[in-house]
Each structure stands twice: as C-alpha cells, then as structure tokens.
C-alpha cells in the first residue's frame, strides 16, 4: 500500500490535516476583504512570533532563498561590503547570494559544526567596518543554532546592520527581533510552522527601510516597497498574485501553533530535540556539532565507522518510507540529519527512532533493540 | 450562508475539485522519485502545451511576474536595448521590469485596446535594432490577444529575440513556441490551467540559453542555470524548496486539461468567449478593444453611460459573490472585465451573465431579463 512518506528532514515539515484542508479549500480571491483578513491575521501572528512591535512583516511567494535574496536586493547597492561568518552550507548561500549581486563579502571561516564566536566577529568588524553582517540562525547543514543575540550585539556596537536567515529556526528556537536589535529576519512557511512551502516572510526594521531608500540593486518582484504599499491597503493585498492556497494553509498552521502559544511551542521543540539526541546516543552513535543543548531544530549524527551516512538515509527511506536528510558539503557520507521541528508529537519522534534502530541493525550495526526509544521515553516521562 | 465567491476575473481562475484535492493531499517530499515524477509529467505536458520539442521548460515558485523578471535577469545585461510595443497594463509591466534592471527600453505607444501592428514593429526595428522584443500575448487589461506569430516573424527577420508574456494566454489561445520562433515564453499555474497560483514557468530556446551565457544582470533565486541543473537529475528537482502543494495541484490540473486535449480546450475557450460577447451585446452594451474574435481570455466591456464601471463590479460582487475585474489605468471606471479562461463550463458563463443582467437592472440600466443568457444559449446550441 502506498503511504505518504514520513518526513523527518529539516523542512518541509509534516503538514497537519487542518492545514491540508485549508489549502485544499475553495480559493479566496486575492483582492478583497476575504484575503485581506488572512493577510492581517497572518502578519499579526508572525509579528508576535518575531517578537516585534516595530518591524514591518512582508509576505512573498517564493522559497526561503527568494526571501533571502529580497534582503540583498532591497538593502544593498553593488560594491557594499558585508561580513559573513562561514560555518556551514547556509552561510555559504549568503555568501553566494551577496557575491552574485556584486557585494564585497568578507568572511571568517570556521570548520562546519562550529558555533560562531562573537569575539571573532567583533575583531573583524573592528578591523574593517561593513554595512551589514549576514547570519544564519539555524545552520541546518550542521544542526548548530548560532548565537544570534550575542552576534547582533557586537554587530550593533560596531554600527553594522544585522540580517538573519531565520528560515529554519523561527518558531522553533527563541528569537527576539526588537530586543536583539535585528534589522532583517527572513522566515518560511514550511519550517517550524508546518505549512506548505511557497511563502517567505521578511521582518524589516526602520534602519533597513532607511537603507532600502538608497539601495540601488535592481529589483522588481521582490521590491519591498511594493509589498509595503499593497499591505497598507484597507484590505491588505500582495502586489502580485500570491500563492493563495499556501497562505490559507499558513493561516491554519498559525492558528494551530498559537493554540499552545510561542513559549509552549519552543519548550516542545527543546524536549523533542533532547529525545532525539538521547535516543541516538543510546544507540552508541556520536552527535555532530557544538552547542547541542541549543540545537532544537536538526540533529546531525556521525555515521558509525564503516557505514556510509547516505546508505543509512537511503535504506531508512526505502524500508520505512522515512525521509532523513543526508550530509551536505564536506559532511556528505559522514553525517546524516534528523529534522525535529514543526508539527511533531512525541510519538512521531519515537517512530522515527524505531525506524533508525531497525535500519542500523539491517546494515550490520550492533543495535540493542528499543534502546533509542527507551531513552526518548525517558525524556518524555520527565514531563511535568 | 458563506459561499465561495464565483471568480470570473482573469486569474486566479476557478480551481476544479480534483485540483483542490491534490493540493490538499499529503505532501510529496521534494527530493526523490515521487516529486521527480511530478516534475517529469508537468514539464512534458507543458512542452506539449507550448508546442515545443526544442525548448527547456523551467518551473519556478513565484507569481507570473516573477517568471517575467526571470526572463529579464537571465537574458540581459545592463544597458541592453529592448523594444516594447505599449498597448496596455502588462506591456507597461514589461517596461517597468526592464527599466528597473537598467535596460534601455524603446517603445511605440498605442492607445489601450489596440492590436499592435507588425509593420510598426518592423519599422522601429529597422530604424534601431534591439536585442529583444518584449511582447504580451493576452493584454488582460484590454482583452486584446496580440498577434504574436506576426510580431515574432518581423522580430526574427530583424534579428531580435522574442520574449513573450504568455501568463494569461497559454492554454487558452493558440501558441506555437517552435513554429513561431519564440525565445522565451512565460506562463503561470493559475490562469488557463486552473491550478492555484504559485508556480510560474518559462520555456527557453537555444538562442535564449546562448544569451544567458553572457548575460550579467545579478540573479540567484531565478537563475535558470540552477533550475536546468536540478531538472536534469535522475529524479528531477527544483533548486530551492518549491511550492509542492501547488505543483501537486498543477499536475492534477494538467491531467484534466489533457483529458480533452489542447485543440478541444482552445475550441472551448473560443466558444465561451463568443457566448460572453454575444450575451453582453444582447444587453445593449459595447465591447472594448480590437480583434474581438481572437480575444478568448477576457472581455472588456464599456460601462453604460451614467454608470461607473467600478460600481458594477462592486455591486455584482456584493449581491452575487461574483468577482469580475475592474478597469485598469486609463480604463478605470470606464470598462469592466469578465475573465472566461480556465475551467469554465457553459453554465458557469450563463450564471455570470444572469448575475450581470440582474446587477445592471438594479443599477437602473434597462435590461430585458434573460436576453444575455438567451444569446449565450444561442452560441452553445450551435455546438455540433
């Protein structure tokens, strides 16, 4: 029997039935009060999620990468200098995005899996001031949650704007747009919120709007001014025809997310992350990356000696329909990754760990059956 | 009782239940054989629809406008010269898009509603050669279907590439990518195919790929090379996480569209268009725009003396939940528009005409009840 695959990858994340129904319902016309109400509700909830009163939140039809490019196009002119601390695949995406638009990119290079040191960024900015620092909160290639608060603090002190890829972190780990002094933060519908992919969002500070005024990079589809103008209509709209069905699903996803509230959702992510990590450790596998206690979105796991990590992801998908993520870049074949952010319950995690146990045993790794599940149960039984 | 609005606007068009179910079904993971099959089938059917064996068809997550911008970014360098015959809102969008990227835009200006004269374009290109001509097949602001075949012929003879906005025409009126010598044609999921908005597609000729090789405008999210590379994988993918649910819906929409086949779908559009036009004429209203017999996507109608066109669209929406489109630009308040492309049946058109009859009567216009409906029935009864 064909069953849907079980996605334990870092996005898209599992879509709740309420969201599927909303995106499968009749389409609301995108100009008028019906869609205006969706825009208003989604924007207000995203502002709560970003923890901002001051920022404008814009909704664009694209993947997260499109949202990131919008930040480059709207804030910069060719030749502007930016700083990117390089510690994984998505930091590299920032670098490529900036370079492709003619920005001058300064970097400090870390081994993948490293937590960026605010002191390094401070020293680099002291030596060479830049217009902005481009950061990635959840470096999904390694699982590391970077210390955005501390990094933003040093960047602000050095007069640099702070632009954050929060695509795979917003809603899963703490984020404080206003309190941390963030200028742009980009998120996506298909990550911690568990809507379908297709909508990216950007929170934009006053300082970023001011930069936007003088930024000369060519832009049209992602021109924030157009989004701002249409969002200010009596019935808020998008300038171009948006992915209406995805927006309907996103509205439903936020409704679910806010049933528990932000604090409870973050606590759930912490618990699920710990269960995965304890479970995997109980199998005798090693975890990858620094700051594991903070890394609530993705767990990167070193493949055991003698087993290629891609064999594990291929086999668990073939045998159990369970989609984990392979290693990227220098980690290809060396690590595999479990995504555990979004609409996961405790039992979703447990079934994934059971599939991993059986897969590793089939690949000849000595597994004590039930041990990963038992460790995860240990975490869940602590629950107050 | 809250009912879904009846959309008789030029896109998004009505979504068939089969499409709603597909986009509300469990999400297929976007890397792997499941999504690869969707990509393969959708791309193959779009090639049939474009009437191309030679072009590469790329699928991007964005509105149609994003697809148009992709053509600018991928084919041109700043300072390149293009020619845009200006005869409506969407020609103006081409001009704005090109200008925002530093292209030099040469134009010939027509009154809105005019059918562009190939001789004018020929004369302009003879006087001043350009790299490309940017055309709009269905100028939805006026209802006019522009003579792309003839325009492409003169452009090709003058050595200019031909780039076509076919967003609101592909699948509704004849289009022949290979035979007409088109270089780029951009389409969208939410128009004649009646899928949800969120996916744009571009067919790209060899000549356009060659231009792409030397084009230097900054690009990343819409970089066609990335789409080409990922589409060539064993299991075709998108480079970035696509709007998966919209793609699932698009697959279902194409399945429906191809049940009848392209020829039958085009004939249906011609018939529905004629029924709308005969119906509206039977009410004593005047149609707007040249070449009415070719204009199978949208009918622009002059508001009767003494009635503002926006009053008609507001009132029919308020009273009957029927969404027509208002006039744009210089036509605001003067014309209103009925979209009749996509998944419309004969009776969908008839109910729209009945709503229009009742609305006009309520606004004090002398209506012979049933006359528009009778005229439409006249067209449908001719059916073989």
List keywords for this structure.
homodimer, 384 residues, alpha/beta, Aspartate Aminotransferase, domain 2, Aspartate Aminotransferase, domain 1, 2 domains, 7-stranded mixed beta sheet, 4-stranded antiparallel beta sheet, 14 helices, globular
Q: How would you describe the overall organization of this protein?
A:
Two copies of one chain form a homodimer. Helix content of chain A is 44%, strand content 16%. With 384 residues, chain A is α/β, with parallel strands linked by helices. The longest helix of chain A has 21 residues, at 262-282. Chain A starts with 5 loop residues before the first strand and ends with a helix. Chain A has two domains: 17-259, 3-Layer(aba) Sandwich (Aspartate Aminotransferase, domain 2); 262-381, Aspartate Aminotransferase, domain 1, CATH 3.90.1150. The mean pLDDT of chain A is 97. The first copy, chain A, has helices spanning 17-23, 33-50, 64-75, 89-100, 118-127, 148-157, 177-180, 206-214, 224-231, 244-260, 262-282, 309-320, 346-362, 371-381; strands at residues 6-7, 56-61, 81-86, 104-109, 132-136, 138-139, 144-145, 161-165, 184-188, 199-204, 287-288, 298-302, 322-323, 325-326, 335-339. A seven-stranded mixed beta sheet of chain A has the order 2-10-9-8-5-3-4, with helices on both faces. In chain A, strand 6 and strand 7 (144-145) form a beta hairpin. Chain A contains 14 helices and 15 strands. In chain A, helix 5 (118-127) runs parallel beside helix 6 (148-157) and helix 11 (262-282) packs antiparallel against helix 14.
């Amino acid at each position: 029997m064909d069953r849907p695959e079980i996605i334990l990858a870092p996005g898209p994340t599992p879509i709740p039935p309420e969201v599927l129904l909303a995106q499968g319902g009749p389409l609301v016309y995108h100009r008028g009060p019906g869609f205006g109400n969706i825009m208003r509700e989604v924007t207000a909830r995203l502002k709560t999620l970003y923890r901002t009163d001051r920022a404008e939140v814009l909704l664009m039809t694209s993947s997260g990468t499109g949202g990131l490019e919008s930040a480059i196009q709207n804030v910069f002119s060719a030749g502007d200098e930016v700083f990117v601390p390089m510690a994984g695949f998505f930091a590299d995406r920032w670098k490529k995005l900036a370079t492709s638009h003619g920005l001058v990119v300064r970097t400090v290079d870390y081994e993948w899996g490293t937590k960026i040191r605010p002191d390094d960024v401070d020293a680099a900015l002291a030596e060479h001031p830049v217009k902005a620092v481009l950061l990635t909160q959840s470096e999904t290639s390694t699982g590391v949650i970077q210390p955005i608060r501390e990094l933003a603090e040093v960047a602000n002190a050095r007069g640099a704007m702070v632009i954050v890829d929060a695509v795979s972190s917003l809603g899963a780990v703490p984020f404080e747009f206003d309190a941390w002094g963030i200028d742009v933060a980009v998120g996506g519908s298909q990550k911690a919120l568990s809507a379908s992919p297709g909508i990216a969002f950007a929170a934009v500070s006053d300082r970023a709007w001011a930069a936007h005024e003088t930024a000369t990079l060519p832009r049209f589809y992602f021109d924030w001014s157009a989004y701002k103008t249409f969002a200010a209509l009596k019935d808020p709209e998008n300038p171009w025809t948006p992915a209406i069905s995805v927006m309907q699903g996103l509205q439903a996803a936020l409704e679910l997310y806010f049933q528990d509230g932000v604090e409870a959702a973050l606590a759930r992510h912490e618990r699920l992350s710990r269960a995965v990590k304890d479970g995997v450790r109980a199998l005798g596998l090693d975890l990858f990356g620094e700051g594991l206690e903070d890394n609530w979105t993705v767990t990167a796991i070193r493949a055991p000696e003698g087993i290629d990590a891609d064999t594990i992801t291929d086999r668990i998908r073939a045998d159990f329909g369970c989609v984990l993520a392979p290693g990227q870049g220098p980690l290809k074949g060396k690590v595999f990754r479990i995504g555990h952010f979004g609409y996961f319950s405790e039992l979703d995690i447990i079934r994934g760990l059971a599939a991993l146990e059986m897969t590793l045993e089939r690949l000849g790794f000595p597994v004590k059956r039930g041990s990963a599940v038992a460790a995860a149960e240990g975490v869940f039984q602590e629950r107050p």
